[in-house]
Amino acid sequence: MPETDQTAATTPPDEVEPQPGSHAVNFAERRALTSEQMKALVSLNQMFARSLSANLSGSLQAEVFVSLVTAERVLFRDQLATYDPDGMFLIEGMFKHFSAAGLLQMDLPCVNALVHLGLGGSYQLPTSEPLRELTEIDTEIVGLFLSTVWRELGAIWGESGLEIASERRVPPTDAVKVFSYSEYLLSFTYSLNISGVQGSLILSLPTAIADLLLRQIESKSSPRAQSPEVRVFMEQRLGQIAQRGELTLPAFRMSIAELTELKVGSIVLTGITSTARSHFSVAGGPVWEASVMQNNGKIMAHIAGRVERTLNNA
Prior knowledge:
By secondary structure, this protein is of the alpha+beta class.
């Protein structure tokens, strides 16, 4: 869809001269994707592409490569304009617990490759084979493999609870009935390579499903704000947690003879004066200089200043 300049976007409708072939856009309903949302969606779908490649390669006993090409928000009427009725296969998936459907579109060369391999054909596919009308058996085979696509998507979507309940093939002429003509879709286009046969796989999701995915992404990426009351309560509880502290006397010297004569009840003369500074510390925290004091029979540390070194270097 061509971009509309700023003047046209802000001028009242009755003051804008419509251009030939143009159509009105309700900018109030347009939902743009932020860069963070797009990065998260791309990351999810890259995981899906790798998983689907491995799954289809194992099922078909052939090399299958799926890679994400684009992820975009697009009007359904604009997407319809790109459809080739004679060159694509469409399958609709109805979501459980939601009155909404998603749409998978695959190029017919890839569909024929799936059918060929699904029927036990050689993995060396003919490159010049003309496209033919799909039989009921062909449709069943393709439907089985596209069910794998839906299952892989459900595994990636995970916590959102999105799951396909039923599927049906949609004739290209009936594609217009799947979504509202003016609805914005979240569209993912994948490059699909099946034993050298190149094509596209396109996943289209309606607004309701797309918004559910985006809300899930935002809930994971946005920090949860706590109320002031909860924050105060947490600070009070954390303030009551006991930490192990250490009060270390300055080093002093002893003779070997004094050390060898030590026994229970011995009194060690340290030579440390009462004004000497000791070191007070908590594991993992700073080291402080402190004077040792006594009050009611208990030793106290009077903090005098911080030592510019960590406990490991003390």
